[in-house]
Design brief:
Its EC number is 3.6.3.-. This protein has one domain: P-loop containing nucleotide triphosphate hydrolases (Rossmann fold, 3-Layer(aba) Sandwich), CATH 3.40.50.300. It is about 35% helix and about 25% strand. It is built from seven helices and eleven strands. It is globular, with a radius of gyration of 18 Å. The termini are far apart. The structure holds adenosine-5'-triphosphate.
Length: about 250
Amino acid sequence: MTNAVDEMRAKTLFDVIKEPCGMDTILSTENLCRDFKIGDGSVVNALKNINIEIEKGKLTILRGRSGSGKTTLINILGALDKPTKGKVMFGGRDITRLSERARDDIRRYKMAFVFQSVALMSGMTAYENVDFGLRLAKYPYEERDKRTRECLRSVGLEKRMFHRPGEMSGGEQQRVAIARAIAHKPDIIFADEPTAELDTATALHVVKLFKELVARDEMTIIMTTHDPSMIDIADKVYTLEDGEIVE
Ligand SMILES: Nc1ncnc2c1ncn2[C@@H]1O[C@H](COP(=O)(O)OP(=O)(O)OP(=O)(O)O)[C@@H](O)[C@H]1O
């Protein structure tokens, strides 16, 4: 499929997406529940009636202890998993009810993901890692080159562009992953414990970079963390306890 066709398909899909619920709400949930059946026949209620609103152009943090439900929630918000009950409203429609193909398109064109373990291609340079996703999406060379350089510059890695992951620090590798995530200009970035494997100073640096992307480029970012030192930097914090949002 050509890039133009891809763009058209995405446009058609999102023509129906008008400004959602509130003017500034990009994503929201209604009474979201997620149960997991486990081997012995019992059920874990990982999420219980979650109602949250994610504001456009802000950094939202989901915090909570291990097992509180952060990953389960961010996976459902990012259309990687479906709830047992409830809705996820994105762009004014309930994305839990869409076909897998439509959910794939939303993930591909509208969303981006940054995970705890960075998962860069070890044989590729920072530049090639960022370029790779754009190449798969069939962007023409000039645009790919421009965006790749821009994104690496915006995460402060212009001098590391042609280094391989093994030649970079953990924080630098995570910044490459962030550059890769922002390259296709997603509406929203989901970051699940992106700082968990970094030392405190580097972790703070990555979160400040998120804050910068939000302030400078009006990106919307949702990140999970169990680290209380991160929360001051967020525009909005939701705390999860045992599958519920608490004040
Ligand atoms: N696939 C699964 N099958 C069964 N139970 C699960 C599954 N995934 C998650 N759970 C359970 O759901 C609850 C929430 O898990 P989740 O991974 O969302 O927590 P978390 O806050 O992200 O934890 P951590 O910070 O340790 O990653 C936990 O009790 C967990 O054991």
